[in-house]
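Let's do one together. I've listed all components of the complex below, 868 residues spread over three lines.
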Amino acid sequence: MVTLGDYLIVSGILFTIGFAGVMLRRNLIIILMSLELMLNAANLSLVAFSRFHVQQSGLPDYNAQVFVFFIITVAAAEVAVGLAILVALYRARQTTDVKDIMSLKF
Amino acid sequence: MLPWYVLLLPLGSAIAITLFTLRFKALSSSISVAAVLGSFVCSCLVFRQSNISAPASTWIEISGVFKVPVGFVLDNLSKTMLVLVSGVGSLIHIYSLGYMREDEGKSRYFAALSLFMFAMLGVVLSNNFVMLFIFWELVGFTSYVLIGHWFERDAAADAAKKAFITTRIGDFGFMVGILMVWASTGSVVFAEIAPRLSPLTTHSAFLTIAALLIFCGAVGKSAQFPLHVWLPDAMEGPTPVSALIHAATMVAAGVYMLVRVAFIIQTSQTALLVVAWVGTITAVLAALIATQQSDIKRILAYSTLSQLGYMVMAVGLASNEAAMFHLFTHAFFKALLFLAAGSVIVMLHHEQDIWKMGGLSRNLPITFLTFAAGALALIGCPPFSGFFSKDAILALAYERNTPIFVLGLLTAFLTAFYVVRLLVVAFLGRPRSEIARQSKESPMVMTGPLIVLAFLATVGGFTFFARNFLALPMEKDSALFVPLLAIIALIFGSGLAIAVYRNRASEPFDIKILRRLFYFDEFYSWLINSTQERLSRISAFFDRWIIDTAGVGGASGGTWGAGALLRLIQVGNLQAYLFLFGLGIVALIYFAVFH
Amino acid sequence: MSPFLFWPFALLMLIFGVAVVINRNPVASALSLVVSFLGLAALFMSLDAYFIGIIQVLVYAGAVMVLFLFIIMLLDLRAEEGRQVSWLALIGGIAVALALLAQILYVIHNLKSAQQAFPPLARSTFDDVRNVGLLLFGSYNLPFQIIGILVLVATIGVVLLSKREPR
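Okay, and this is what the predicted structure of the assembly comes out as:
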């Protein structure tokens, strides 16, 4: 029998993987992908809670699922814009290495 | 209203001269003399009225806590002092007309003199400590102005500063003493304090300290040991100033104040003893120094110190009457001596060294005779006034404290010695310099006051005269023994002086320690220097290292260092920022969840 | 819901998630991410969230990952070579990530409701499209409209950002 806790643990692990990926990879595309992992981990825990809290009508609490819907939408828009920035950056610097964009260093 | 006139006429004169007539020297002097004469007349009128009410109003009142009235005390003591102060003051004003005739700052001098009269009369009339203190300080200030009248001379300016600062030290103790008395009795009015002291006699230490601190004021103002160093230097001022301030009135203010608040001092036997000994030490010390001085005014200054010591001694022996009696007679003969000395000085074109004088008895006869009268009164030769008053004090000492009596007798011997030395060297014999040979008698405006004072110095001691003014000390049973001893001391001293100094051309002895005034000035100078040196070194260290380096440098350097440290975080590396972000999140969750 | 379905799909998702992070070739990373999304969609289905599961496949795996692959190929990104890895940064990063994980696990462990099984549903959620839609157009109409505008803005922004400089 799978409990809510199992879903949350899986979600947590996924989040951590994504966070480590953002921190440790140098390629910008990989960083963006790891970011998507983090977002999905959040989505998973939201849906798990949505299923857990059953309303009087016998249905799950759909508010969380609406929230997940919004998250997916915004994530998509964000990826689009992020990749556009990446393209512009690549055209200017010919690199996608995050260590080459340190203009704000003291 | 009369007491107000006594007080305010000189003030009016001072204000008028300062504001309006500084350029008109003759007018200024006339205003001043008229004011002081008017004050004298009013004092006599006040004196004759037996029960005159003292007008009173309130100046400061903090309800329940602190009340300072503006009021006069008009008992026999103050009425007598009024007549004395204004009378001697008038004579000196008239004398000054002659002495300062060609002085450039004549108007300024008379304005200051009038202000001094106002302040001194205020001291006499005050009925409470606060008013007394204010006038006390004003007396000190006007004395500073008058001593430094010829301020272009460094010696005069320094002497004025020295006088003010030294008396200020005494005044500080005085003020603390006043505060102690007020704190314990709740009032500053003399009449109200007296009955409130009896419950406090259990705290004898407190009362002793308060009494001694109040005595400090008198130590400063009346130039007792150890604050006596200013009086000889104050001779830099014009001679009438020396006569008025440092012989007859200001230094007497200290003794007057002691007599006024004697009821406080008498609550403590220790305080009385200290007072008596301070007076005695001053008397002996000053007399010893005087034997080796060669400036005529300095000799007289030290003799003033010595006689003041007698008066303080009398207060310490718990006899106000004897102290006031001596003050009374001393005012006459000391003023006389100073004015006569001034006459000599001015006629010798400001020569003050007695070893350049000689034979003046022939050239300045009136001056000589009046000076001699004053001198005889000073050494206590009967039937002059000084004999009676000094004798009263010696009798008191004989009865109450034998060591003090012996020292008093020694001082009498020394007094006779140096006074007769002065007489012999300056007036008798042959002239030692050209100036002395060609001197002439002073004008009438100067010799007039001399004659008046000589008369007073002669008769002032007789009971029938003095009884009108003072409560006289009571006759003792050992009435003959003490005067006899005093007269013997007198004869020995005078004889010795005549024998040693007759027909001498220059000073035969050279006792270094006396000439250098027991090295008091050097000692004080060293004391102040070394203290200031230490303090200023500490302050400099503090300022340079703690404030500048640690404080200011620390603040700026610390800020710079912190900035340099924080700057290291701005690496520009996105992932480093994310790492720190993660670290912060972990910490935040730790504190939120695990605490 | 059977653990035999849950754990395989969960492990699939996690392992390919790790593969995303570790792979040097960006294309391999992208494809691993697709598989991870599919595993996630399966998990959504297991939670009776059919609508969300389908949306996950359609939008995420279908549109977003396609976009990723397009960009990778447009820019012709090669595999990374010669990693000069800073051991300090690596250790530090892994440490922080593990610390975060530990805290999350601890919190979940202390959550009372985490030990409970899912309550049964009274009705089937086959028509959850309708239910979600009702909420979306009903209570959350305003955010919905704003999201629409946001997407529009994103589109405009993307077009602007990827324009070439005119010669």
